[in-house]
Fold these 2 entries.
Entry 1:
Amino acid sequence: MGDVRRRAAKTPGAADKPTRTAILNAAEAIMREEGYAAVSSRRIAATAGLKSQLVHYYFKTMDELFGALLARVEEQYFGRLAAAAAASAPLHAVWAMLIDENGPRLTKEFIAMVTHRPVLRREIAGSAERTRSLITALIARALNEHAPDHSPPASVLAVMMESIGRLIVSDAGLGVSATHDETIAFVESQLARIEPVASKTPGRRAAGAKPS
Amino acid sequence: MGDVRRRAAKTPGAADKPTRTAILNAAEAIMREEGYAAVSSRRIAATAGLKSQLVHYYFKTMDELFGALLARVEEQYFGRLAAAAAASAPLHAVWAMLIDENGPRLTKEFIAMVTHRPVLRREIAGSAERTRSLITALIARALNEHAPDHSPPASVLAVMMESIGRLIVSDAGLGVSATHDETIAFVESQLARIEPVASKTPGRRAAGAKPS
DNA sequence: GTCTATAGGCCGATAGAC
DNA sequence: GTCTATCGGCCTATAGAC
């Protein structure tokens, strides 16, 4: 029992076949380190220690491979996003995700790839919209509880949060980081106003005052 | 007189040779429409109506070609930026540039290309820093004249302005534009506070009150 | 499922005629 | 400066043996 011969529609081994996973892992690694343009069936095979034809066995075309990789990356990403949203300080958690290099690196790569490989445009656009509305909802909820004097609408704040995060990550990729510290400090000071952080870890007294 | 046989160091015909220009034009067009990965000597030649070997005559390597294109794009970009900075409402003019699709499209492509072609990283980083400090200076000047109650530092505002602009352009490329109108409206309302727009075109009374 | 073999194409780059 | 000719390489993808 357990494996009742289930049928996968699209590709051999719907998801968790180890070789398939190895292929996607290799593709993701190459994409992250050298950009989407460096991802080829041969490079993938070399990285994963396979023959390049196996790549074509699991994914008929490269478009299909990139689609599968995108799906996997999205799934992980929204999983992490959901976890952040469920944390005690959701906005702070989401913000931490946004300025973490590793997350947006692939996102950026996929967005850039759309110009060259238009097939994935709708999927990527949908993903972007989904992220946007999730963050907007989180901000709206926080605003509802701690409304500051006159605040921009939640949707605008969501755009600001996301865009600043992306620029910081993009700059970091270029080796530019001059004004990041004060930008991050500013964003976090604003976040603290609509989502007060109750010093979670016990033992130390309330955060905020540095002993200097 | 006039052409005293001047020597160009790097490539045949330092700058304004028509074929060279045609090559760069073609490269730029392809890059803009299909992404950096679609730019090849053969595609360039086909677009410009040349033989691909001519591309290699003017640019020994593709890296050199992309470097030359970057230099040209930067020159145009900073020219426009300087003009905007000299306008009567510099921040508004710069903002208009930032959310104009055509400018940042190539910038984004070059930034994405860095992952794949690291040679240009320093140059692109320098360009980014130059833009950043120029915008920061404009904002600082405006803040100095019309200081609002409590404003973030100019450098942070510069990051915000640039990042929001980039996200809007990026979204537009994906076909996402749900919250752009209100975002743009918000940014412009903030800009108007630190850089009042004296209704330039005469005939109508002061802007701001809509007859509805 | 993994292999060998191979077709057919675009790529960067060079050599040499004119 | 522009052309023809060409090398060697990497690419996607398919056919077929095991």
Note: Residues 1-9, 203-212 of chain B have pLDDT under 50 and may be disordered.
Entry 2:
Amino acid sequence: MGRSPCCEQDAGVKKGPWTPEEDKQLLDYIRENGGHGSWRRLPKLAGLNRCGKSCRLRWTNYLRPDIKRGSFTADEEKLIISLHAAVGNKWSSIATKLPGRTDNEIKNYWNTHLRKKLFNMGIDPVTHRPRTDLNILAAGLLAANANGGASTQPCWDMNAIKLQADAAKFQILQGLVRVLATATATPAAPGFDLMTLLAVANGGTLVGQQPPAAPASVDHHTLSRSRLGQYHQQYYDDDLPPLTTSGGTPPVSKVISTADGLLDSMVGGAFPAAGDGLSSPEPIGAGAHGGPSGSNRNNTVVAVTPPPLVEAANQGHRYNGAAATSEVMSSEPTPASSPLDGTSNAFGCMNQQLQDDDLINDVDSSFWKEILEQISLAPSSDNYSSEM
DNA sequence: AATACCTACAACCGCCTTTCG
DNA sequence: TCGAAAGGCGGTTGTAGGTAT
């Protein structure tokens, strides 16, 4: 269906930065008329040569009286990072937890400050995990050293594949967590939302809002303060958990028998907490900008298709050179995704490829078993029933 | 002093969902 | 029930100011 740009029919309307005079006109009109009935009609009524959409954006992002100007505080920074780790680029959702801040402002701040900050700290701002480029480089260098300078290519490829497998596992967990959050929390507690919960869990730094009472039905699914505290420690104490290492036991092998276990694994263990790009649950048919579609704006079931393995191999090759550490931050792969029905095929294919490799075969069979058990939420699991 | 480059952020674009006649 | 209008959202671009060469 689609629809034409709102200003297409208004050829000749002014674009670009607003002048103080225009601001005053818009402010005066809204003050006198008590807000806006129709943004499309507003420009004419206010005597502005702007399209309604431009007026709305100017009002919501700049002129609104309740907007807090000035730099972000450390608490706000932490909160943004935590919330971004939990929900990804859901700027409007994040903005609801930072009164006085607009989604646009938070988005800009993330893109210009926080993303670089995390990146420079060795954290991938997309996955909120240690940067994989550094891990691959380090693994390659270690292997080169161990081999006395022999070819490192096989080792690099292996690490790339294992990283890719980790990413795929994470995406499954991300989907599961959202399913659990939606299925358990929402119906039992209208008004309760995961965002608020996360904000409260974030060291009590929820700005200007009272922490909601967590409904009893989600007690066992509630993020504990310690979890996000642990997450913060990853940033501020440089206590970063390791990614899968060659020959080691993958972190996913930790018992994942409850929703809490899932979150534990994500926040404090093996997996990225959330984000976009590699971990982004982008649905098929994302916009021309590559942005998420509206269907992904609620906490609905997300797709968890892993990136293709061939990419992993290519990444290994890509880093096998002088520019190994110069990974561009914006190169965030956005794997095509599909509803869960497509996931099995994708993962079946990937698992088949993984099984071709003895080194990681045992790892993944246990992982899939755990996942399948988790999906069914079988009460027969001792750990699960004891926590419930 | 001039130019190129970088950074920050306001504003725009195009897609989506919701609303309403 | 349907389709158009309206509003919302996230990604991207444009621009002004600052800094480096």
Note: The longest strand of chain A covers residues 123-124.
